[in-house]
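Structural prep section.
Before we set up the soaks we want a predicted structure of the protein with TZP in place, mainly to decide which crystallisation condition to try first. Input record follows.
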Amino acid sequence: MNQKDFSRKSSLLKEIDFYLVTDSALSKKGTLSDVREAVESGCKIVQYREKDKSTRAMVEEASEIKRICNDRAIFLVNDRIDVALAVDADGIHIGQDDMPLETARRLLGRDKIIGLSVHDREEAILAEKAGADYVGLGPIFDTATKKDAGNGIGPLKIREVKAAIKLPVVAIGGINKENCESVIKNGADSLVAISAVVCSDDVKRETKYFIDIIRKIKTQS
Ligand code: TZP
Ligand code: MG
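Run finished without errors. Recording the tokens verbatim:
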């Protein structure tokens, strides 16, 4: 998105439902195809998460993802603040062991979105105090996608975190079509389902499924 400013940032994040995180190792049709299909399906937030490519290849791919997202979806880069800056992404997503949030904020400025991974209520409260724009909470269920993710914390923890902070909470880890209802019913604003979407033959269809179910449950509650 081009015209992002500080006042629009929180309203943009209020609109997210299904959140696409890319994974080139798991993807059936490739990262760019996954982003294209998800955004065409109505996905409003994309995170470029790439662990195996050269910086040059990442900058090229990130630049293409930015073009696809354009003004249709928020575009964030996982971990790599240099790549985010190089392509003027909308922000970054970082973990507890990555660059400190305060440092990332200094480098990116207040208009950019910074998401932080948290595992419990205490980390979520600290994330809010440090100036995160949203938290990624997980792993909600056990997952094979991230080897060091630890055990699933269960969907009830979402409720606990939602009660403690005002920031949007994005649930991640082991989420699929069977268990996604419990994630939204327990208060998640948005969810990530990496393998459930990028391993499928039809990313467009799977994205649409998640968007529809998330919206349906949100309007019921
Ligand atoms: N962070 C916590 S769990 C996870 C990440 C990146 C992997 C989620 O992948 P999946 O396939 O949706 O379980
Ligand atoms: Mg990280």
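Observations: The two ends are 30 Å apart (CA to CA).
Flagged for discussion at group meeting.
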